[in-house]
Amino acid sequence: MREAILAILLAVASSSAAAEWVEVDSDETLTFYINPTTIRRDGNLVRMWELLEYKTARMRDKVKYMSSKAESEYDCKAEQLRTLSLSLHSGNMAGGGAVYSTDDPDNWRPVPRGGGIEVLWKIACGKGHC
Hints:
By secondary structure, the protein is α+β, with helices and mostly antiparallel strands. It is 18% helix and 45% strand. It is globular and about 40 Å long.
C-alpha cells in the first residue's frame, strides 16, 4: 500500500504533461487510472478524472469499447459518488475515438466496497493512497 502511495507521488512530482494517467489499482478484468492533476476539492465534494482500461472488449449498444474516461464527483462525508461525464473509447487508454459519450450526471450512489472504485474514492477523499 505504501509503495502505491510513493509511486503516485513520484509520478505526480515527475510529470511534466497535463494529462498523465497514473495506475492506482487493477483486477482480473480492468485497470484503474487517475489523473492526479485534476483532483479538485470543494468542502466534502471532490472531482477527479479517471480512466478504466478493460482487458477484454466490452459492449454498449452493440458497439465494442476497450476503455472509459470519466469525470467523477465524490461526497467524502456521505461516502457517495456520481459520474459527471463519461466517454467510452474503442482503443486502449481512451484512444481510437469515442464510441459513446454523455455529459448528463448520474444520480448519487454509495461507494462500493472492496474494489477499484473504493480505491478511487479513497484517493479522492485522502483516505488511503494519497
